[in-house]
Predict the 3D structure of the following.
Amino acid sequence: MNIRNNKMSISKIFKCKPKELKEIKFKTPEGNEVDGYIAYTFNEFKGSIYTKLVNGEFNEQILRGFPKLHSFGESSPFYRGEIDFREKEDGTNIGFTALMDSDKTIVLETFPRNRRILTEKNRESPVIDDQFLDMLSTINTNKYHNFVQKYGGSIFFELFGSNNPHEINYSDVTDLDIRFLFGYDNNGHTYNNKILNDIEKYEKFKRPNKSFELEYIDKEKLIYHLEPTMDFIDRYISYIDDNLNDFLLSNKVNNPKEIYNSIKYIYDEINKNSLTKDNGYIGEGCVWTGFSKEDKNLTIQIKNKPSAIEELHSFPHGIPKIMIRKSLRTFTENIGNNYLYSRDKMIQWINADLKEDILDEKVDMPETQERIIEIVKEYCTKNTLKPNILAIVNTLISNNQEMTIEELMRKFAEIHPEHIQYSNKVYQYLSSIL
């Protein structure tokens, strides 16, 4: 299978374009050679790895990247069925993934530390850095390593507490702790709620506390009471005043939007009270886990944050240029310059990247969009071919349609030695269209 067909096949697995696959080819510290691709796309496969060869032997594996936390409305509401509401802790995502050879021996180690597990930090980078490895070293993670060694796949956690400070005040909760969030089996299939619950029960993986449960009030009309769990009450009892207590006892919901708004209101009130009492926020919201309406075999997660936490990234005058340039840099480092001649695609990618962490409406603001267009135009103008050189290259392609990119590059150098200084840009252009 040649590389173009190979990338095409893999892109179908990851539901992305071939240009959004980055080839990885490296040797582990113990000398094991790995060949494959990592996906830089904004669907559920972002950061996932496909391995083709391990130590020169065909060994197809799919190692899923971090699951995407969807915003409400970004995806269709869940299929009617079990929805699990869990506390959203405010920390760092940590993943454990085992890459095995054909003999089921783990061959990929953490860089730069010597562990036989690939430990992930985020949805782009497959390797954790020393800061978080040092934090992990204070927690017994043997059972997590043993789990992926035994079953393969990927499992993901939240590392949180007062020793890993973010927006939420954990001074009265924990110094440092870890909670099991999600996982994929060795074929890249998502663990559903039943499997997550079984892992919690039998493997003793601590999960975030359940926040709410839906209790039927009227089955015919699908009216529920959004009932807080005892874990929720115990954690936030100091911040539940009489008005909020009345709401918790009496609220009724019958559709996903009402559930979302009720949870948002509850955490808003808790944070308002904690800000008055302790001068800080105490709750980051919760995460829904359930089946996708479009694909009942796909488990997805939706974040339900309070207003105060969302407003920490409010950007009343649009997202600043420095953040847009950072997103563009992420694009060029991971995707390369394959979209230099498709500015709309670059703009679409940057928009999706920003929406990973920032409210959609802030990204969609006219001020933000104007800055994105300006920065992309500036970058493309600097890095694309001048019109006269572009015309030469297009003529060359038209007259030599059977040639590979390498053959076209040699032809360009032979016919137009006076334009040799444009070789890098010519190569980028050919790679983007062929």
